[in-house]
Request: fold
Amino acid sequence: LTKLMTAYMAFAALDSKQIRLDQVVPISTYAWKAEGSRMFVEPNKPVTVEELLYGVIVQSGNDATRAIAELLAGDENNFAVLMNQQAKRLGMTGTNFKNSTGLPDPQHYTTARDLAILAKRIISDFPAHYKMYSTKEYTYNGIRQPNRNRLLWIDPSVDGMKTGHTESAGYCLVSSANRKLANGVERRLLSVVLGTSSDQARTQESLKLLNYGYQMFETVKLYSAKQAISTSVVYKGTSREMPLGVNKDLLMNVPRGMAAQLKATVEKKDTLIAPIKAGTE
Reply:
């Protein structure tokens, strides 16, 4: 699951033009000799950033992950420092990274809440790159490996995200589904399951959680984007009043059947003085 952060940082570097998908990455001996899950990269054999990302996301390759870390920060220790800085920016208060792969270390830890924050930000910040997580299998160096997220085959609404397994952490899965509801609204849910005893258990428990969320809760739209919800007096302007609203649809998840009990009010705290641009908070 650590590889979610490795991928997040690679996606950020791609969007900032720091690296390119077609960029060829040298493979160090350190990356090549990574233990555990592997993509089977080799020194002196060309491999692109895009191939490495599929190796990280689909094949969970520790060798590919180390190669990404070295590309972005020179070595894995430097990359772990950057990972922790990013985690702090995202509000992941219960996390500390010591490496890019998630191989066990006493000072390497996270929480279900923090993983949910990270998964949500991958989906919202990098929607174009997030599509990689729905890839069911990937072949590199003549070796085909399936995605370990079995939910991709079981539930067509599931389009990610990442499995994990070590002896200390057990079998883990961060999953995401996007289902169209009866009212036509699409609703995405995230599930984080940690510490189960088997691959089958993490799959079943994740599906139970997703189904529970869709069955027992509903999404209610309180206000539509750009809708005039209220007005406020404006001083020193050509008009005495201006409309107030929200920049995007304001949605709320509530227990099923409770929507009718929702009451929304607008509270205005500040005096508005012209000029005021549209979209000002």
The longest strand covers residues 170-180. The two ends are 36 Å apart (CA to CA). Residues 176 and 258 are 25 Å apart (CA to CA). The chain has a mean pLDDT of 95.
